[in-house]
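Task: sequence design from structure.
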């Protein structure tokens, strides 16, 4: 086992000591468990997926409001078939030009 030094915020250190005390183990044991769990978690979420998560919101402002689109679809239920829009003609979800 190798030894390392880690700088922690005082509040984090207090929380770490509290957890170690409750479990009746050392601060180092809590840190080892935390690092092991972190590494396992990182293995379950590959880097490519993390980049995709960072992309959420990338289309903000490029698509119409989802509520407007939903209301248009529901309005068709109350509209007689002769006046209803044809499928595939929903303007609310078309991408706006940049």
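Answer:
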């Amino acid at each position: 086992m190798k030894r390392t030094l880690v700088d922690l915020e005082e509040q984090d250190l207090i929380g770490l000591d509290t957890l170690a005390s409750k479990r009746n183990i050392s601060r180092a044991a809590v840190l080892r468990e935390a690092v092991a769990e972190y590494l396992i978690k990182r293995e379950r979420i590959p880097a490519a997926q993390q980049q995709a998560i960072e992309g959420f919101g990338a289309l903000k402002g490029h698509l119409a409001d989802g509520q407007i689109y939903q209301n248009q679809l529901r309005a068709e239920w109350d509209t007689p078939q002769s006046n209803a829009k044809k499928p595939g003609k929903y303007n609310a979800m078309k991408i706006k030009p940049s």
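Helices lie at 10-23, 27-44, 47-54, 66-78.
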